[in-house]
What does this fold into?
Amino acid sequence: MTEELFSIYLYFIVEKVIPLIISEYNLSEEEAIQKFYSSELYTFLENYKTGVWRYSPNLLFNLYKEELETGEIIFPEEAA
It folds into this structure.
């Protein structure tokens, strides 16, 4: 996958995760985007080599929620 295609794909992933964050935490879209982009999870997501971009939006949301609640992210085995 080219860098350009990855950027486009990443945009569509984030577009599906943000509404879940908005709904769960009662945030504005701007706040949700800022918080997600500032997360450790997003650092993994934006790195093609981690493979985190292959996860479903629901799994990504659950990992984000886990990071907020515990300060840790435990990736499924296939990510290791």
The first helix runs from residue 3 to 25.
